[in-house]
Write a structure and sequence with these properties.
By secondary structure, the protein is of the alpha+beta class. 24% of the residues lie in helices and 29% in strands. The protein has a nine-stranded mixed sheet, sandwiched between helices. The longest helix is centred in the first third of the chain and has 17 residues.
Length: 211
Amino acid sequence: MLSASPHYSSSKPIPGAAFSSPAVLFRSADLVIRRVEDFQERQASDLLVRRMYTWRGYRSNPHTAPVHEDHRVTLTAWLDNVLGATLTLSRDGGNGLLCEALYPEEIAELQAKSRSICEYSRLAIDPDYSSPELMESLFRTAYNFARTHFDASDAVVEINPRHRRYYERQLGFTCLGPIRTCPRVEAPAMLLHRDLRHPLPESAAIGRRAA
């Protein structure tokens, strides 16, 4: 069983030169958001996901996909070299999206409109480091990456219904699929959608995007 208490911190290769590498997508005084580039970062991200899923009573499986994939990227948020959050983005390119297993008709309807879909998945946030600023920075970075790197027009995310209000009020998502039981995590789920052609609302700047 995974422990619910230890945080993942790293002295290498995460700090130093790695924090100024092209993998860095966002930086503020104490927060760095970067895409996973090696097995050590992938392992850290996977451990956080499994730890937080276990803490909430969800079923979790190791992330066995290769580190480098054209259609998938994992973002990690580091606060003073400690991993605080992670989120995976997957572009629909014939490889199948996780949410298609539970919502095939809803995804097929988007695909029929020739929309370019990006799926958000495997979100995990360490409660000791959670804050509105961290959440905003992570999702704003995800929005920018999906638009610029995946050329996505739409985002979908399968969530626990109790988080619906946050996604709708803060991120502009709307309900696309009804509540069903997700067999991957053995918990209730619902499918949300956001048109990425509409920008995120402006808010107070808390950092700068990496060049």
